[in-house]
Amino acid sequence: MLASAALAGIVATPAYADSNDDMNCPRQIRVRALGVLPDSSGSTVDLAGARMPASLSIANSIVPEADVSYYFTPNWAVEVIAGVTPHDITGTGAISGLSVGRARLLPPTVTARYHFTDFGAFRPHVGAGVNYTVFFDQRLLTARRTGPLLRGCTSGTGSASHSRPDSITCSTRIGA
């Protein structure tokens, strides 16, 4: 339903970027794909206070996202994007292949963009902005593990923890 409404907005509301002569409709609403590709390098795994020869791997996620742009001039626009991405977390090294947990991310991003308008229908742009990623629905899997390194450990019962604080990062963008 929401995707249909957003798609109807694309068709019913032409963007200012496509109109060189007037500012009748400076908004653009779109539905696109959003890819979140986490970098889990440097992660560590501690068991009972001892560091294990293992780390974590966080799966990439590609989902639909909604974005809204507002054009102040034919060249300058601000864009806001949002989408929710699910991620599976697995072990590597000594715990290779072990399903550790899951998390969801909401990475809204606000970007200022400059559009080059001297190329006819081709409108390349560059942009910079800020991203505030919210981590939620973080949970460890609750299955009992009985492998040689994890004998007797049960995740999700207070003997293990998993959380990631929200983060703020800079974003850049190049596109057409």
List keywords for this structure.
two-stranded antiparallel ribbon; 176 residues; nine-stranded antiparallel sheet; Porin; mainly beta
Plain-language structure description:
- This protein has 176 residues and is mostly beta strands.
- The chain has one domain: Porin (Beta Barrel).
- It has one helix and 13 strands; from the N terminus they run αβββββββββββββ.
- The protein has one helix at residues 2-12; strands at residues 27-36, 46-47, 50-51, 54-58, 61-71, 76-82, 85-93, 99-106, 109-115, 125-140, 144-145, 153-154, 167-175.
- Strands 1, 4, 5, 6, 7, 8, 9, 10 and 13 form a nine-stranded antiparallel beta sheet that branches. Strands 2-3 form a two-stranded antiparallel ribbon.
- β11 (144-145) and β12 form a beta hairpin.
- The radius of gyration is 22 Å and the shape is elongated.
- The model is unreliable at 1-22 and 143-161 (pLDDT under 50).
Quick gist of this model?
The protein is mainly beta and 176 residues long.
- Helix and strand sequence: HEEEEEEEEEEEEE
Helix content: under 10%
The low-confidence parts are 1-22, 143-161
Percent of residues in beta strands? Answer: over 45%
In total, the number of domains comes to 1
Q: How confident is the prediction overall: mean pLDDT?
A: 77
Sheet with most strands: 9 strands, antiparallel
Would you give the CATH topology?
Porin
Q: What class do helices, strands and sheet pairing give?
A: mainly beta
Radius of gyration: 22 Å
Q: Could you say what the CATH architecture is?
A: Beta Barrel
